[in-house]
Automatic annotation (TrEMBL), chains A, B:
GO terms for molecular function: oxidoreductase activity, acting on the CH-OH group of donors, NAD or NADP as acceptor; zinc ion binding. This is Zinc-containing alcohol dehydrogenase superfamily protein. Its cofactor is Zn(2+). It comes from the Bacteria. Keywords: Metal-binding, Oxidoreductase, Plasmid, Zinc.
């Protein structure tokens, strides 16, 4: 079958790879309805993470089950399923607390930029739809697998409440989904920090009330102005750099929470500074599985349309162009038709 | 009048100082019913904070109002009052959000280890009792001014819920008050980390269900054993060193909150480590004013007895011995009768 392999920084190829097989009785094999490229796929692509062996790329997925292992009981061949990028048993204590992304058996999905994919821990990871979804809903369901669930977790961790003032740092796909999540949770004010027209427009479409194009000190000053010099009740940090984290900390009011979902790269916190800022923090890989049934329901009932973050659609064979377009910021997020 | 002045590390004296006067129309002058020495007073005493000029010590206080400025409307001479160590207007947006310790007009109290003290921002800071409290309730009311309110905030910030499993790191007065707070909030399991018999006994009296005397790796292992290898739902960090913070992080389950109230000294966090631990954090100087009416009510109705943390009582004239006893850990906390 065709699959995506990253051989070296900048060298990503769609090539023939072995079809996945059931390796554990808890596995399922799915035929992808679509796949996509994640902002985090760009780290190894850009050489920011080491590549020690050819990597089978792709961790966002939805599609039809074609085979299940002997122990799988909750999904069966022929069903349409969405799963989280974090594989979880959904029964361990961490899962029961709603932190499936710290599951005792956690694995990260891989190899989903392909025609078929193996999903370990299928019972704990996959959620089936009742019917076969309409084709135009596929992008939204695919978004639920990671980027929507991650933006949602950022808003949940930041404890967005009805009436909250919210700042979203980062205008990538996750940040835009954070805007959508904050809106769904009833935020009164949603300030999106973005310098790019297309992303600003999408942020406004998803419910942003204000756009701040400035960065650094100017950006902080602008947000403080917009929040009557108080700072925001909740901040969603969706980048993961020291600059973006500083921005998040400086626009949060004392007692606010920062939900941070951008994997920190080179970020350090000074304990005493954090203490006197009196800003709370909760982050980590998103426990998408916790939110998945609700998010799928919102998509299937057409109450939200997260699929709009895919502003480039390519056949799987053109995956290299998909990476290039995202790397050069010509595309927010690339959907791959398989 | 007599007051306490720190002249240099280790050199603290009870000496004649000028009586405080109303300087602002929002000030009140109180006659102290009692005062006490705080763990944080030991930092400059030990030379860990710079002393650039003689310091008038003491920020925990309760007593009778003797004079108020022209703008003060909520307390009047003759009333018994308790106030927070953080002075606040209790009207600014941060105060209204319950974070009076980040008040726009915040000042820190000083000069309360004395016969009289000036309390700025009296309306926003002081809470009066209905009647003159019985003498044996004075220690408990005094504790509410800082150490009880701080332990309470740690439990609140850590989001202790009915049924929670809680770890308290630190067996100083604040840690012991954290145990009391967790108990009041309905925690099912309260693990106190303490190596000192007297403090262990008091922790058990206040509601600790388990004592862990081990520290470092052994202490972490023991807590994990006690929490079925899951980690605690809530952790109260009441020390402020890198070791204690590491301990707190390592005993918290994913999704847990750490309420940290020990002012961090030399503490740094690695962003990526914090991210993957998926542990939340909220700290800072305690907004005692938020909790004060409730805490005073609990003390006055004798439902809690936080005054037991004072295991040494001295006249103000012996303040130097009070500092020595705490410095040498012969006393948990010293009450000064004025």
């Amino acid at each position: 079958m065709l699959g995506t392999v990253l051989h070296a920084p900048g060298d990503v190829r769609c090539e023939h790879v072995p079809e996945p097989e059931i390796l554990q009785p808890t596995d399922a094999i799915i035929r992808l309805a679509a796949s996509c490229i994640c902002g985090s796929d760009l780290w190894p692509y850009r050489g920011l993470n080491d590549i020690t062996a050819p990597m089978h790329m792709g961790h966002e997925y939805c599609g039809v089950v074609v085979e299940v292992g002997a122990a799988v009981t909750t999904v069966r061949p022929g069903q349409f399923v969405v799963g989280s990028f974090c594989l979880s048993d959904n029964t361990c204590p961490h899962c029961r607390h709603g932190f499936q992304s710290s599951c005792d058996q956690r694995e990260f999905m891989s190899g989903a930029q392909a025609v078929f994919a193996r999903v370990p821990l299928a019972d704990g990871t996959l959620v089936a739809t009742r019917d076969m979804p309409a084709d135009d809903l596929i992008p939204g369901l695919l978004a639920a697998s990671d980027v929507l669930g991650t933006g949602w977790y950022a808003a949940d961790a930041a404890r967005v409440q009805p009436g909250s003032s919210v700042v979203v740092v980062g205008d990538g796909a996750v940040g835009l989904m954070g805007v959508l999540a904050a809106k769904q949770m009833g935020a009164a004010r949603i300030i999106a920090m973005s310098r790019h027209k297309t992303r600003q427009d999408l942020a406004l479409h998803y419910g942003a009330t204000d756009i701040v194009a400035e960065r650094g000190e100017a950006g902080i000053a602008r947000v403080r102005e917009l929040t009557a010099r108080i700072g925001a009740d909740a901040v969603l940090e969706c980048v993961g750099t020291q600059d973006s984290m500083t921005q998040a900390l400086r626009v949060a009011r004392p007692g606010a929470m920062i939900g941070y979902v951008g994997v920190p790269h080179g970020v350090e916190f000074d304990g005493q500074q954090l203490f006197f800022s009196q800003v709370g923090m909760l982050g980590g890989p998103a426990p998408v599985r916790r939110f998945l049934p609700h998010l799928m329901d919102l998509v299937l009932s057409r109450r939200i349309d997260p699929g709009l973050v895919f502003d480039l659609e390519l056949p799987l064979t053109d995956v290299a162009e998909g990476y290039r377009a995202m790397d050069e910021r010509r595309a927010i997020k690339t959907l791959l038709r398989v």
